[in-house]
Design goal:
The protein is mostly helical. Helix 7 packs parallel to helix 10 and helix 13 packs antiparallel against helix 14. The longest helix has 30 residues. It is globular, with a radius of gyration of 21 Å.
């Protein structure tokens, strides 16, 4: 791929703008009208709480079904995303940049005193634009933070499915592609089955909405998490039976740790007395869970996430570092995030956090880190 071709491929077109606008419009409409469990968010500092309609799984199934029917009727092409990948990447990046600017200026003008919309301005434009000013900004009653996370996860699956259709069309479908697609699809579907767990994550309850989260949700998640699929379109990998079994084992262990840890944390926040692994939970200072996975490592959910990311890349073999961009990046990100989490928790919980650290000395991987 020469430079001139790359530059030309990155130029947004009206087709890519239309695809992105249609996708967001669909999510905004169905997210508001489809039935779904209404989940209360965590209690904010001003004693208010937001509520989230968790109908992502139904929205996803309906969208995939509509696209499939439209493709059968030749209204759309299943390879449309794969054919315009770089166009959509640049279009989504520009959109994220502009959204972050709008969020910055609207946040600066906000006079709200509530926890969700109260502006937090440091005076450093780059810092405030990057990290955001408001905790839960809304547009037409849509919680934008929750909306963008949902869009990113669905976008990831749509890109993968389009790449799969392209692979079938080109006659390059392989065991590696099937394995990659299966793992990602299971992970994404599981996310939407347990979408309510997202309401108690650090991103939702503590991070303000700025370019970092908007870009991460809309660009980074769908376009970098799918790199392995793009790579497999052009590179053939032959996997042995042993490699397939080992890959499945990594995925299952990662899923067990990731989902189990997040479920324990979510259940604990709903009911601090709920049993963990069949026993009453050990709680430090009445606030910090030190049982189950959270008694093994202070950020054990990150370990599960890393193993899952590795399982998405292993089907690509070891001939190139390109398919391993995601797990390598995620390792760096999660260590950085873990350090930020530690600093915030130390400030928030003080002596309770020190006691928790003594009881659970490992950060992510027991006996290693």
């Amino acid at each position: 791929m020469d430079l001139s071709f790359l530059i030309h491929a990155l130029i947004p077109s009206w087709n890519s703008v239309s695809l992105l606008a249609g996708f967001f419009t669909y999510l905004a409409i169905v997210g508001s009208i489809l039935p779904g469990k209404l989940v209360p968010g965590v209690l904010l500092s001003d004693s208010t709480r937001l509520h989230y309609r968790c109908n992502g799984l139904l929205s996803l199934f309906l969208l995939v079904g509509l696209l499939w029917i439209s493709a059968k009727m030749e209204f759309v092409s299943l390879t449309a995303i794969a054919d315009r990948g770089l166009e959509l990447l640049s279009t989504t990046f520009i959109f994220s940049f502009l959204v972050a600017l709008v969020l910055y200026f609207s946040g600066c003008k906000s006079k709200s005193k509530g926890s969700s919309l109260k502006p937090h301005i440091t005076g450093n434009l780059i810092h405030d634009w990057w990290f955001g000013i408001q905790l839960n900004p809304q547009f037409m009653s849509i919680d934008l933070k929750f909306f963008f996370v949902r869009a990113g996860m669905m976008g990831w699956l749509l890109i993968n499915l389009s790449v799969l259709a392209k692979s079938i069309q080109d006659g390059t479908l392989s065991k590696s592609m099937i394995l990659f697609q299966l793992f990602c699809a299971l992970y994404i579907l599981d996310y939407f089955v347990h979408e309510e767990y997202m309401t108690s994550t650090w991103d939702i309850i503590a991070e303000r909405l700025g370019f970092m989260l908007v870009f991460g949700d809309l660009v980074w998640i769908p376009f970098t998490f799918s790199i392995q699929g793009w790579w497999l379109l052009k590179n053939k990998v032959e996997l042995t039976t042993a490699a397939v079994v080992a890959n499945c084992f990594v995925f299952l262990i990662g899923y067990m740790v990731f989902r189990g840890a997040n479920k324990q944390k979510h259940d604990f926040k709903k009911n601090p007395k709920a049993p963990i692994w069949g026993k009453p939970p050990k709680v430090i200072g009445g606030k910090l869970l030190a049982s189950g996975y959270w008694g093994v490592a202070r950020h054990c959910n990150y370990l599960g996430d890393l193993l899952l990311a590795l399982s998405f890349s292993l089907p690509c073999g070891i001939s190139s570092p390109v398919p391993y961009f995601y797990p390598i990046y995620l390792l760096i990100l999660l260590i950085w995030r873990e350090r930020r989490d530690e600093a915030r928790c130390a400030e928030k919980y003080r002596d309770i956090w020190l006691e928790y650290r003594k009881l659970v000395p490992w950060r992510i991987l027991p006996y290693v880190y």
